[in-house]
Write a structure and sequence with these properties.
This protein is an alpha/beta fold and 456 residues long. It folds into 3 domains: 3-187, no CATH class; 224-283, no CATH class; 302-454, Trna Endonuclease, Chain: A, domain 1, CATH 3.40.1350. It is built from 15 helices and 7 strands. A hairpin with a 7-residue loop joins strand 1 and strand 2 (347-355). Helix 5 (81-105) packs parallel to helix 7. It is globular and about 75 Å long. The two termini are 38 Å apart.
């Protein structure tokens, strides 16, 4: 990566993690952290009795004080409600930082360098813990950044650079980047294992997105180019010649060119299709592809919003949960690969929730799966809407129900075959009438799925 691009990435990273923007004061001066002497641990230093953050800089100071952070995380893992609420807020803030970092990776916030300086020279100074809690926050940050960055079309080189910073553990100054990265590779064995698990998670997230997009593209009814190769070749797009109104180097156009070439090679027989995939169709025309990606991104944002709702509900007291009622210690994960008997192709469930309390010896794992759907029910009659529900319910039960093998490395059920206890279907209820929702809920009960509605 060239020097200017690396500086840009590091500036963006430092500003996001520092809670500031160019020209603003830092959220916490670096000197304050360097001179910080942690007091004896007391939850009251950071939060109220319900675990809500209180006091200036309390979140940053808690992340900075390794022993205190690990104490909170350990208490949260043991089920302490106050600790879970407190650590959940840290996760939410770190996740938001990942989204913001992806936004900044699209372009510089500051017009010129070195007008903005790297105010946080090392991520380790802000988040020094190498314990389970610190690594958990780094995982959340890295996963949030990569997922959002890929949605937004951030260059792969930029994504790789930032992930190397987040997962290797050291924010690299440009002048010492290579030496610091080499040193980072000598981390303790347990840290290396944790890093490999995060990298595996990132790969599975990417695989889930590819599978979902491939399925959506196969079902797309928009205009396509001719299938006959000699005719199709006349429509070959070029990265150097985007359509009118599309900027040179536009990430979506570059993706389209790569997609077009893949489809051409598949039709020509020079590129094999994945096992079990449907026969290759000719590529979509540019406008159809652009429209497909727009809807796909909207669906992914809806999925992410549903996941946030589930994660927030998981932090509530057991008696206050609705979608996760009856679960003692719900663990919410997204895009988990599920293996099915008789097929080598996994399906990727939108959200998988496991009750960690059910993983104790002598108990049967309690596993819930969630399928998220956005449908335009306003254009359907009641009968059509009910048929759509039945189709969605059957699809969810087939893909995410029954006996499945958990394929995600690092998941507490990795490699185990389990029976999904309950399949949930979540609809975007924007503009949906109360009467229709009642009718759909009644039909869902007969279809053996639990139906929920959510307005993003």
């Amino acid at each position: 990566m060239n020097r200017v691009l690396r500086v840009a990435v590091l500036v963006a990273l430092s500003l996001v993690l520092g809670g500031s923007r160019c020209g603003e004061d830092e959220a916490v001066p670096l000197e304050v952290l360097r001179g910080d002497v942690a007091p004896p641990f007391d939850y009251g230093v950071y939060c109220d009795a319900q675990g809500r953050l209180t006091g200036r800089y309390s979140d940053v100071l808690l992340v900075h004080r390794s022993e205190h952070l690990e104490r909170v995380y350990a208490d949260a893992r043991r089920g302490d409600a106050r600790a879970r609420a407190l650590f959940g807020q840290l996760e939410a803030q770190v996740e938001a930082s990942g989204h913001a970092l992806a936004d900044q990776a699209l372009g510089m916030v500051c017009g010129a360098l070195p007008a903005c300086t790297v105010r946080w020279r090392f991520l380790d100074e802000l988040m020094p813990s190498r314990g389970a809690g610190g690594l958990r926050l780094r995982q959340v940050l890295a996963t949030s950044f990569e997922r959002t960055a890929r949605y937004k079309g951030v260059q792969n080189a930029v994504i790789t650079a930032v992930l190397s910073v987040l997962l290797a553990g050291t924010v690299l100054e440009v002048a010492e980047g290579r030496a610091a990265l080499a040193e980072a590779r000598t981390l303790a064995e347990e840290t290396a294992l944790e890093t490999r698990l995060v990298e595996g998670l990132a790969r599975e997230e990417a695989a889930a997105l590819r599978a979902s997009l491939t399925e959506a593209e196969a079902l797309e009814s928009g205009a396509r180019h001719p299938a006959k190769l000699e005719v199709l070749a006349r429509y070959r797009p070029s990265v150097q010649e985007p359509p009118r109104g599309v900027a040179a180097g536009d990430g979506r156009w570059m993706d389209y060119v790569a997609y077009w070439e893949r489809r051409y090679e598949e039709l020509a027989g020079t590129r094999p299709r994945p096992p079990g995939a449907l026969p290759a169709k000719p590529p979509l025309a540019w406008e159809g592809y652009k429209s497909l990606l727009g809807r796909f991104q909207q669906a992914m944002e809806f999925q992410r919003d549903v996941a946030r709702v589930l994660q927030q509900e998981a932090r509530l007291a057991k008696t206050e949960r609705h979608w996760l009622r009856g679960l003692e210690e719900p663990l919410v994960t997204e895009n988990v690969g599920l293996g099915h008997e008789g097929t080598v192709i996994p399906t990727y469930v939108d959200q998988l929730v496991v009750d960690e309390a059910s993983l104790r010896p002598g108990r049967t794992p309690t596993v819930h799966s969630f399928s998220n759907k956005q449908r335009d029910f306003s254009s359907m009659s009641v009968d059509e809407a009910l048929k759509q529900l039945e189709a969605d319910a059957q699809e969810a039960l087939t893909k995410y129900g029954g006996s499945v093998e958990i394929r995600r490395p690092g998941h507490p059920l990795f490699g185990r075959k389990v029976t999904v206890s309950r399949v949930h279907l979540v609809y975007d209820d924007t503009g949906m009438s109360t009467k229709l929702k009642t009718q759909l809920e009644a039909r869902a009960t007969r279809s053996n799925v639990e139906l929920h509605f959510h307005a993003p």
